[in-house]
Amino acid sequence: MNICTNIKSGLIFFIFLLAGSVYSQCSLTGSVSPQPLPCGDTAFLSVIANGSSVVFGENFNSGQPVGWQFTQSVTIGNNTCGVPSLDGTDFMWMGSSATYPRTMTTNAVDLSCGGDICFEMRYAIQGGGAPCEGPDLPNEGVHLEYSLDNVNWNPIAYWPPTNNGAASSPMTQWAQYCEALPVAAQTTATYIRWNQASASNSNFDHWGLDNIGINATTCGGYTISWQHDNYSLPMGVYTGTNPNGVSPNQNTSYVVQMTNGTITCTDTINVIVDAPIVTVNNPTICEGDSVLLTASASQPGGTFSWAPSGQTSNSIMVGPNTSSQYTVSYTTAVCPPSTTVSSVTVDPAPTLTVSSHTICDGDDVVITATPDQGGVLPSGGTYTWNPGGVGTQSVTVSPNTNTNYTVTYNLGGCLPASNSGSVTVNPTPTIVVDDPTICIGDDAIITCIVPLSGQTGGTYDWTTLGVTNATTTVTPSITTDYPVTYTANGCTTLDTSTVTVNQLPDVGFTADSTQGCAPFTTTLTPNIVDPNTTYFWTTGLGTFNGAQINPVFSSGGCYDITLVANSNGCINTGFASQYICVDNVPDASFLPTENYFYELSQEMSFLNNSVGADSYFWDFGDFSTSVEFEPTHLFQNTAGGFMVTLIAITNLGCTDTATVAIPYQEGIVYYIPNTFTPDGDNFNQEFEPVFFSGYDPNSFNMKIFNRWGEVVFETNDCKVGWDGTYGVNGDSVQEGIYSYHISYKLPNTDEKKIVTGHVTLLR
Hints:
This protein has 763 residues and is mainly β. Helices cover 0% and strands 49% of the residues. The strands form 19 sheets. Strands 6, 8, 9, 11, 14 and 16 form a 6-stranded antiparallel β-sheet that branches. It has a 5-stranded antiparallel β-sheet with strand order 2-1-20-19-17, with no helix packed on it. The chain has a 5-stranded antiparallel β-sheet with strand order 7-10-15-12-13, with no helix packed on it. It is flat. The N and C termini lie far apart (150 Å).
């Protein structure tokens, strides 16, 4: 172990870095030969000191580089940006939390005697995403610098990007770099930092470091000496052997020191003394036996002593009744006594247990003899069975009746042990199960019966159902086997109940036609006709028997159809709602709004009085048609009259036809002026409508009304007009607008017609 101190001005300074490590500027390692040292021999002590040592080291494997000074957060990890470190462990990576300068600075270290700085470094490859994007400009590389006050910094080296930061650049591969410490940096408190002074921004120009070591040169003037005899090597000699040998008879430690009066390092050399090693056997015997204990030593020439007997030979005979310990000591002229203990384990005489079993008639069983020796299962020994003879610890037997088996166990010199086991044989029970037949969807009761009274009272297990009763109910969809086991007196028998499932007859059916006009006849037939199946139909007209029926539907409506099929007692029902639909024949009827055509071009409307129809088709006799309920049609060239036909149609296509002939009758021809001027100038003095033809002059009436609805003039003669006067005195009425109401009859049909309008009176 090295103990290193740096003493200045009477004070002891200890510098601890949580992530990095600080070491002294001197180190030495002591050694001894031979090692281990045989008891009574002489050993020589040697030392090797180092001319330089690591005063600061960081490999980032702790994962937390505490103690460094960073200008931003860094990433500690392995395989950052897809590239592992040189040694496969963690390294430091300058991330993207800040732009620049990106620096990492050590605490102050003692480099007063000079030294060098070694580290591994690589740049990210140009073009990647943050933080894997690398430097490419000449000023974006990393500077190695030192400072004496952590404020003012001086250059040591600079590594600019090469090949524009491409993957082919040496700077984008891990490499080790070592730089000598400048003379100006050789102080007792020197700071070292890595500084990227320029970067494009936080997302660009990243780099990593690993395995940093700052090595200090050992300052001169050291002397190495051994503390137990004060022997020293000459000053400046750092490797040598103490000529004064040491001969300890037990393990001993010796301290060697390296010092220049200011800095001191020490190491402790542990000399291991190889004392004689005594070995002895540790036997195990059976109760009543004896055994020879023999001791041996690793070095000759000594004497043995046994306790508690006091015997001095290397071997003694013992025969304890219980487990005991015997101590033997070995003594030489120069070495202290070596002692060891022999343990004699005494096993008691064995006992024996034999298993007993109950089996079913025809079964095999394994009988096992189990020896015991004080709670421990002994190994070895022989077994003799009766009946059976010499055999193993376990035997397989299959007796027909109850039988006892005796076994004797012999274990070496121990007294033999003997015991017996029995095999009880029970008969296998008899069971009977039923095999029911059901229709699909029905329940089946299956039962396991034990016919022999001496075998009742056992347990049942319908293995596929998880049922433990003698009787259970099942509802299989197909013919199914149900195995059942019955156990009585420890014996089990197996049987199977088969439930036969008859499928329901098919009740699908079709009709050769499902709709029509009353009376409507169709044929109903099952989809699958089975000669062993009986069929019963219900149609709304009654019940029919037989595979195929031909019902007649005499009235309109939609009818439900039901088919009931019976096959081997399995009944199934098929049903179709409103499967057959029948329409009654409709009644077509209509009237035209005019019984005659009075004009050569005349518009005619029709009143539809049909019953039971859903749609209509009109044929106007002039190659024109309509599907409206009550159409209006313009007839041309009506002098010959037209035959109009209406076809009334139901949704199912049932039809009825009505036809009306409309003849032509010469129409009324008249002229009614809208203004007259009764001013005495002999022109347009009366309001007189002029009727030329098509009216009955004996059934004519005209009334004139003022704006208050009063009749101011009335005449039954179409040749008498209104002269603009009122009353018996013939008073002139005021200028204005007056209403007229003219009624007349057609000469052939006596149909009454009315014409109304307005006339303006001007004076």
